[in-house]
Amino acid sequence: MKSIRHLLATVLLGISAVASAAPIFVGQWDLYSGAYWMANPAPSVLSGQEAAALLFGGSASDYLISTIGPNVADINGKAWYDIYGYSSLRGEYAQDYKIDQNGNGFYDGWSDSSAMVKDHPYTGNDPYPFVNYAFRLQKDNAVPEPLSVGLLGVGLLGLALVRRRKR
Question: Mind listing the pLDDT tens digit for each residue in 89-135?
Fold first, then answer.
């Protein structure tokens, strides 16, 4: 019975382990690395996470974005964006921020936003400030499927009861 309890405790500990995801720096791009805003077809409206997925693969939800630097400790969940028609609104917004006024996915309407478009070029004297840093979430542990875990638990409970009944 002690070995069954030990086995059951081990399984339950494994089930209770939550999948962790460690962010890994995968690359960077600057705000103006996309297509020219007057291009035909117009550039895409991209959130910071969508731009990272386009550049480095995977899906947008795989990424965390930062405007600070490539150090994991500096992830701030923001990206640099340019806003169609409003150079004064260019700045840092949430990594999943996106405005698409026409709903067509293209940077072609007033106040559309994108984290990767050549619009309102930087003319300052300081070093170029509009760099986005992408961190991909690397999944360390797989989360067990609930139905499979439940079936395993019921099976172990059945084994314990059968063993107990035999005694």
Answer: 999 999 999 999 999 999 999 999 999 999 988 888 888 899 999 99
Q: Taking Cα atoms as reference points, which of 55, 48, 4, 46 lies closest to residue 27?
A: 55
pTM of the model: 0.71
Cα 99 to Cα 18, 61, 65, 88, 107, distances in angstroms: 34, 18, 18, 16, 9
Query: Do 91 and 132 share a domain, yes or no?
Result: yes
Other Cβ atoms within 10 Å of 111 Cβ, number: 12
Percent share of the chain, pLDDT over 70: 79
**Cα–Cα dist 29/62, whole Å:** 17
Is the model more confident about 132 or about 163? 132
Query: In angstroms, rounded to a whole number, what is the distance separating the alpha carbons of residues 161 and 4?
Result: 10
Assess whether 84 and 11 both reside in one domain: no
Query: What's the one-letter identity of residue 74?
Result: D
How many whole angstroms separate alpha carbon 123 and alpha carbon 114?
19
The structural domain count of the chain equals 2
